[in-house]
Amino acid sequence: MSLFNRRKGKTDAGLGPDLSEDETVSAAAGVVGDPEAEAAAAADAPAKAVASETFDRTDGPYDESEVDEDDARLALGGLRLAGREGMELRFEVEEATQRVIAVTIGMNGSTVQLQTFAAPRSAGVWDEIREEIAAAVVAQGGTSEEQDGPLGRELLCRLPVRTEDGRTAHQPTRFAGIDGPRWFLRAVFSGHAGHDAAAAAELEAVVRDVVVVRGGEAMAPRELIPLTLPPQPEQAAADGEAGVEVEGAPGQNGGREELKPFERGPEITEVR
C-alpha cells in the first residue's frame, strides 16, 4: 500500500465501466474493428435471459453477517474490499449528490467495476437485470451472449466504441451478477479480463473476497447501496502513506452513447 493517485473527471453514463479513447483502440484491451463483424453485430438480437440456479457463495462474495467485522478489509460503505499490492481503485461519484456509486478495481491491464443494490427478501434480481443489460447493449449496436462463468451466469458483450480514426469497433466486456441476502452485487470486467479467462482470474478472486454491507434499513429493490471513500489524503499521510497527486482528466466515453439505467459521475482514482 505505497501510493495514492487520485484523478477527477467526468465519466460517461452507463452500465459498463469508463472507456477512454486510448483504451478502446488498444489491441491489448481486445478491441475488434472488423467491418464485417461490426455489421453482423448490429443485426444481432439481444440474448434472452436464462433463469440461473442460485450461485454458491460458500467461497464468496460474502454478506457482512458471514465474516468477522474486524478483519483487514478496506471499509467502503456498502462494500468491504481486501487490498492487494498494485491494486488501483477508481471511485465514481454522482455529481448531483456527491455520493459514491461505484468502485472500479484495476490490476495488470484489466478492470472490474463493482456496484451493490438492494434486492427483495424472497428472490434475486440478476435474471431480470441480465435481460435488461442485453437489450440495452444491442440497442447501441453491440452484441450480448449468455454463458456460465466462474461467478455464475453472466453476459459476454461487445460494446460499440469509437476509434481514433472515427471507425466503430467493439470492446469485449463481461457482466456478472451475484444475488445475496437482500442484496445484489454487479461486476463488470473489461480490458484483458473482458475476453481472457486467465487474465480475469485475479480480479475474479478479488470479487470473491468482497463483503457486502447491506445494512438493516428498508430499501426499495434495485436501490443503490452507496459506497464511501477510503481515508482522506491527510489521514493517509498521517498513517505513513505516500502523498497524493491530483490531476484533471478528460473523461471521454470512447464514442459510446448512454447505457441506462445507472447514472455515473466524476471519478477519483486511488492506487494502493
Description:
This protein is an alpha+beta fold and 272 residues long. The protein has one domain (4-48, 59-271). It is 17% helix and 32% strand. It is built from five helices and 14 strands. The longest helix has 14 residues, at 126-139. The protein starts with a strand and ends with a strand.
Please provide a brief summary of the model.
This protein is of the alpha+beta class and 272 residues long. It has one domain (4-48, 59-271). The chain is 17% helix and 32% strand.
Keywords for this structure?
17% helix, 4-stranded mixed β-sheet, 272 residues, globular, disordered C terminus, single chain, alpha+beta
Number of domains: 1
Terminal residue distance: 5 Å
Order of helices and strands: EHHEEEEEEHEEEEHEHEE
Number of helices: 5
How are the strands of the biggest sheet laid out side by side?
A: 8-9-10-11-7-6-5-14
Radius of gyration: 18 Å
Label the overall shape: globular
> Could you report the average pLDDT, rounded to the nearest whole number?
74
Unreliable parts: 1-52, 235-272
Helix-strand makeup class? alpha+beta
Please indicate the percent range of residues in DSSP E strands (runs of 2 or more).
25-35%
Query: How much helix is in the residues?
Result: 10-25%
Q: How many β-strand stretches?
A: 14
* Largest sheet composition: 8 strands, antiparallel
